[in-house]
Design goal:
mainly alpha, 12 helices, 62% helix
Length: 310
Amino acid sequence: MAPAATVVSKLKVHLKLSISRLRIVQQKDDALAKQQRRAMAQLIEQGKYESARIRVENIIRSDLTTELYEILELYCELLLARAGLLEGSTMDPGLEEAIVSIVYATPRVEVKELTTVRALLFEKYGREWATRATDDVDGNVPERVKRKLRVEPPGHELVESYLKAIATTYDIKYGEELAQDSDDDDGGGTGGGQGEAVLATKEPQESDKEPPLSTNALQDMSTPPPKEPGTKSPVSIVPPSPSTDNTNPKIKFPGPPDLKPGPKMAKAQQPDKQDADAGKAPGRNVNGSKPAGKVPDIDDLEARFARLKR
């Protein structure tokens, strides 16, 4: 048998490695469980309840294994914290549950670091004790560890509770909610079917029947109406689509060019600059009268009337 100090030092190292490995395995199982729950939600949404009830057992088993890893991690932390008690020749009663549980559960889990810890415990306490602990002859393994390792199909209530929890998480109707909705749909569908049956069996009365059409009316219906003037032309122009260079494209139709006034019309419309410089009103002669050919206004008439009086 190796010295106790050497075995305890090795146990400390492998207990730390076991704790790290158990945490990594729990994280992987949690990520896988989320994917499986999402797949269960899709099956429930598609109405494949029998397939969901069978596949949900894998999720239940994965959850039980994850809980077992958590328990074993706590036991490893306990042994690491109380490593000084392991140096004794006899097993401390405060460590017996943790040591026996690790020895009992290690062959049933896939963690290599725990296998090394188990071998070191066998080396410290002997083969005879190892055999009794492996078979749990003394009944020192707690029931919660045995329950996690028990291989049996889950009960119907547990399966239904898992499916309801998954449906609630992903906001999917299942169980009682689905049954209530189906009852409501059946009630509404029955009433509608009776109404359609009554309408189908009701015979049309004589007053509801339309009179037969005459030959002229049939000809008028078969002949298309003449095309009225001013209707839409068959040729249509689609405006160009907007682009970054031209955000508001427009269509330019051909038409007469824009007429601009000639130089003579522009000169006639504008006041004479020379008259304005001379202090005379634009458009008048030297004597102040308007040019011939224009209709005289009231001032011109009064001036003419005054000259006649003289």
